[in-house]
Amino acid sequence: MIKNFIFSSLLFLTIKLFAQSPADLNPELLLKTRVQNLLGRMTLEEKASQINNTSPAIDRLNMPAYNWWNEALHGVARAGLATSFPQPIALAATFNNAAIYKMGVMISDEARAKYHQFIKN
User: Fold this and answer.
1) 26 touches 46 (CB < 8 A)
2) Which one of 10, 24, 56, 82 has the largest count of C-beta atoms within 10 Å of its C-beta?
3) What are the tens digits of pLDDT across the range 8-44?
C-alpha cells in the first residue's frame, strides 16, 4: 500500500513537471485519467526506474533525470541548512493534531523557500 502511494505520488509529480501529451496537459481531465495515460505510455522498466530517488531520464517521453529525495516527514532534509523535527513516530506520540498541522505548514513553507533558493542559484 505504501509503495502504491509513493508510486502514485511520484507519477503525479512527474505529470506536473514533465507532462508531454495532450492528455497529460489537459487540466479538464481527472488526475486518474492523466496518470493512466502516462502509465500506458511507459514500459515496465521505465516505471520501475522511477521508484529510485535518483530517477533516470526517459528520453522518449522528454522526461529528464531528477532526484526527488526529500520526503519531508519531519523537515526538509538533505537540502542544506533546514529545520528538522522529531521522527514521525515521536510526533504521533504528541496526540496534538493542531501542532502536527502547524509543523506541516512550516515544512511546506520551508520547502517552497528552498525550491526558490535552488532555482535562483
Assistant:
1) no
2) 24
3) 555 555 555 555 566 777 888 898 888 888 888 899 9
Element (H, E) at 76: none
**Which grid coordinates are listed for 14?**
512527474
CB-based contacts of 118: which residues, under 8 Å, 6+ apart? 79
pTM for this prediction: 0.50
Cell numbers 533525470: residue:
65
Confidence of residue 97 (pLDDT cuts 50, 70, 90): very high
Instruction: Name the DSSP letter for residue 84.
Output: B
As a whole number of angstroms, the distance between CA 121 and CA 117 comes to 6
* Angle at 1 (CA atoms; ends 74, 18), nearest 5 degrees: 70
Residue 37 C-alpha from the chain's centroid: 19
54, β-bridge pairs = 67
